[in-house]
Amino acid sequence: MKRILLLLALCVATSSTLSANGSRPEATERKGMEDCGLSLYGDIESLTVKNYDVSLKFGEIVLDDMNSMETFTFNHAGDLQEMTTYNTLGEIDDRLMYSYDEDRKMLDVTYYSVDGELQMKQIYTYDTAGRISYIADYNGDGSLFKKAINKYNTAGKLIETLYFYNDGSLMYGYSYMYDDLGDMVETVVFDADIADAEKYTFQYDQSGNIVEKHEYYYDELQAKYYNTYDSEGYLFETICYNSDEIIAVRYRYKYDSAGNLTKRIEYREDDMSMYTTLYKYDSRNNLIEKTLYTSEAMIPTMMTLYEITYRR
Asked: pTM, whole model, 2 decimals?
């Protein structure tokens, strides 16, 4: 779970690939990074992500305190091999190591503490079709902590994931439904006591873009999202309505000629605040800088730097 949370955090910090079918080229597939929407192009050896508070001094942005840092190293196939997280002092918090078979299927993820002690190991089992069928999480002493079982439909789509305690009792689970085109139209999160604690529904346009998303919590509608796209298929605007059918937040997006997201503007209707995020890329279309500004005066508050080392 910690691995997923870390990758989701990275995803929030780097989200430059949106739900759109624009003309931007496909990025390299990288095992171990499936939970994050970060696109990485080229033969990359390592990536370091640093998050800073920033301020404006004499018209220039100045880096203040570092909030977090993560490093990612990749093998020659492009798959994630090691991820290390650091505290605000630059000291190691923990390290994750990934291993694969000759077909690039992930075999296990090993979690190490700050002092190098093995804390947990996650082992993957596959079915005859090469799909993940079973995931077992073990404590450092080798005892089973939890396990997950995946179920697929005849089309090979994942339709259910159940997580169990080491005694076999249900922890929680996910179920998925698809339309005739194979697009996911519903995701339900449940546990042993609540059949549908959370539910998400999706609608698509003819190009396969998500145009509407609904979020439910305990059967109560919490939010609705509506997406519109430009003529090239890039996401142009997202409007979020709350449970009272009132606009809560509105997002606008801009892109460069390569299809990279360069600007996101967030309008919050409740307090009329505005946040702008600017993105910068290198010559290979990899994200190298993201800066968050508040208010119409464009006051910088946070910056994320992406330091990439290429093999060639």
From this structure: 0.87
CATH of the domain at 129: 2.40.160
Q: Return the half-sphere exposure (C-beta side, CA atoms, 13 A cut-off) of residue 311.
A: 11
Residue 189, pLDDT score: 95
Rounded Cα–Cα distance for residues 113 and 102 (Å): 28
Segment 106-146, tens digit of pLDDT: 999 999 998 899 999 999 999 999 999 999 999 999 999 99
Q: For the chain, what is the domain count? A: 1
Q: What is the CA radius of gyration of the chain?
A: 21
pLDDT of 17 > 90? The answer is no
- Going by their DSSP bridges, the two strands 92-100 and 247-255 should be labelled as unpaired
Domain residue limits at 286: 2-310
pLDDT of residue 196: 76
Among 303, 248, 254, 295, which Cα is nearest to 276's?
Answer: 295
Output the pLDDT for position 99: 97
Round to whole Å and give the CA distance between 232 and 146: 45
Q: How confident is the model at residue 23 (pLDDT cuts 50, 70, 90)?
A: low
Structure tokens at 240: 């979020």
